[in-house]
UniProtKB/TrEMBL annotation:
One of its GO terms (molecular function) is hydrolase activity, acting on carbon-nitrogen (but not peptide) bonds. The chain crosses the membrane at residues 12-29. This is Peptidoglycan/xylan/chitin deacetylase (PgdA/CDA1 family). PANTHER family: GLYCOSYL TRANSFERASE-RELATED. It comes from Flavobacterium aciduliphilum. Residues 48-225 form the NodB homology domain. Coiled coil: none annotated. The keyword Transmembrane helix applies. The keyword Cell cycle does not apply. InterPro entries: Glyco_hydro/deAcase_b/a-brl, NODB_dom, Polysacc_deacetylase_ArnD. Keywords: Membrane, Transmembrane, Transmembrane helix. GO terms for biological process: carbohydrate metabolic process.
Amino acid sequence: MDSFFREVNGWIYFLGLLIWLMITIWGSFDIRSNYFVKTYCKGKTVGKTIAITFDDGPTPITKEVLNVLRKYNVKATFFCIGTQIEEHQDIFNAIFEEGHLIGNHSYSHDKKIGFFSTKKVVSEIQKNDLVIEKYLGKKTLLFRPPFGVTNPRFERAIKQTKHFVIGWNNRSLDTIMDDENKILKRISKKIMPGGIILLHDTSAKTVRVLEQLLLFLKTENYTVTPLDELLKIKAYEN
Ligand SMILES: [Zn+2]
């Protein structure tokens, strides 16, 4: 009897191991699984380092943002929309000429992008890659999905386009909230080493919040670094 149970136990153990192996192999090779697509929402650092990112530009407001960043000698990252780049080419050029990083934020930023097929998402990303490359002269490896969308179709698309997906851990809500002090308070409360702050270079309000934020970071002894340094990843293909 004893040896019978030992044998059954052995088989159960073996079956368990087999199932675990199969799941692991499936996860590694099946393109439908989310096993390897990672979203970077913060950097691993214990030092007081933080990154500031701007979405949805370039717009005429971007120039004012660049002025503030220059005044405080800070380098940021701009996730640009293809149609906006085509409309404001000079402003787009000014961003990287001043030493800031450029990321891809889709070609159209369509409100329904969360419902797009994988093929359409790939085309949104690649079309903007080409627009960026035309002016910047190289391909950006940084991509931030519009509205922070993550779904299996985006995951599949990103596996094809091979970008680093960049999120945030400090959302300012600067496009939703009107009170500048409240926006600043909201950001300040969530400041932490390795953090990624999300702002939008689309309103004069954000320009004023940015200046106050940079002063606050200075008094807190924080250093603002570009995303590639914070996350220890490559921003561009070459
Ligand atoms: Zn956006």
